[in-house]
Sigma 54-interacting transcriptional regulator
Amino acid sequence: MTRPASEQVARSERKPLYVKVVTQPALHGCWSVNISETGIGLIATPRRPSEGPHENEPVEMAFSLPDTGAHVRVHGVVRWRHDTAGGGGTVAALGISFGAFDAADGVKLARYLATSHLQVVAAFASDDESRAVRQSLDGVATPHFAATAEDVHALLTRGDMAALLVCGQDESRALALVESLAELRAEVDPSGAGPPSDLASRIVYCAPAAPERLVALFNTGRIYRALGPWPDPDTMREAVLQAGREHGFRTEQWRMALELERNLMRERALAQAPVGGPGRHGEDVGFRSPPMQRVMEMVRLVAPHRVAVLLQGETGTGKEVLARILHRLSGRGDLPLVVQDCGALTETLLESELFGHVKGAFTGAVSDHPGLFVLANGGTIFLDEIENTTPNLQAKLLRVLETGDIRPVGGTQVRHVDVRVVAASNRDLGEEVRAGRFRADLFYRLNSFTIDIPPLRERPEDIPELARAFVEQFNRTLKRSATGVAPDADEVLHGYGWPGNVRELRNVVERAVLLSRPGEMLTRRLLPPALLNNTVPRADPTGDGSLRARLHQVERELIREALERHGGVLRRAAVALGMDPVTLGRRARRHGLWKAE
């Protein structure tokens, strides 16, 4: 195994990829719709609702990369799943984050994503037109030439085509292809609300036709651009690039809409579920530490009031959990809680997601979009990583907080909403204001009630109860039967510094539950090497600042990280470091990081 995909790249662009995907657990009719170096989006047609992997479950996948013949095998985790009924059956949409690739498959995927161009179909092009298309698109897109309408349909079925160039000098033939694609698109998706399929590729018309006919085709959405026969190379290149941007935009918008709908359905289900059972809700965890008891007192105090709340704390301290507790205790628990990560989208997309947009407001706005504030009306909206918003967006957020009025992008009508705002930041917003990166007026509006969440290292009394709740949670989701945390493992958990806070503890417990045998308690054996060696980065106790000592420390940390990433398997860690396993074993033993069984 190579290193996890999440460590190869922090964030990468999603690209359309319409290929058959084989999963384990098996999922019938499974196809990819987009992919990045860190994850993949899938659409499937399960035979029954229980088929295939579900949220938080591990999954193995295998698929091929178009035009390369390369096969990729990867292990991942289902981050979200959304099932809908339609067309006489069930359609499942899944978002999966990659964990570890087989052998060098991660490199194959990264190289494919880095070097792949836009894919374009050129229909009915003559030899001279084909040469002109290749020259115009050189370096920006890969053209695929189709001599017949059947060839066009076969290429479009791949799903990754950003544009269709309709060429040739036969006007009737070119127009017939445009009309047939429009009819087929209407049959497949009459509402226009489905995924960005092959039939939604942008049509750039480069064949002869009467001007009034072209205007009619454009007005009815049958063509994207009309360039006329033998267009200028720069004009063709720009049209294809614009089509590619819109293709990617629609893919991302559709993915976000699916995830939003799934989140809203989950929140309604949680709101209707009876309270009780350990780990069902965040407030069911009995915080024993005085700092968290004070935090919970503040949460209960402010929850019934509409005042905005600012949650501040390090990454992984549980800000979203507290936001959900606030929502449930606010009297709005039977209404939606909408969550938005403000660092996940560009300013334009985030503004559209929060405030909505009207049809035609910008390229790709094919219908009205209500926005998250409208969807959360009467309930709560949680804005995570609010420090990542731009000053322009901060001004609009301030207006919503002060007046409750929102105006969609491109719209003229103002709508009033009643939404409780809970914001979160892993930075000190006061410092951000002083540094000029955050608007002071919005900060003072949010700062009316700030709750600072202490890191886990400052409240070790909470570790046993949190670990117990996580064991019960993962017993349910992973279908395991771990019976608790053994004293030797509890000692290790208490002695660790938890730089990743509660999120890191959750991941450690998830790993241990997954590795546990039926009915087994979680012992030291099931914990990662980093915890067993208590290797939170710290200063050299000898105070030796020599080059030799520093190189010794760097080597130790590199070996420790490699062993941790690969579950303590020496051979895999050696492959990742490019070392001989015997040599790595000798050095790991010297550093006290590995002991032969």
Q: What stands out?
A: The chain has five domains: 15-115, 118-249, 290-452, 456-531, 547-591.
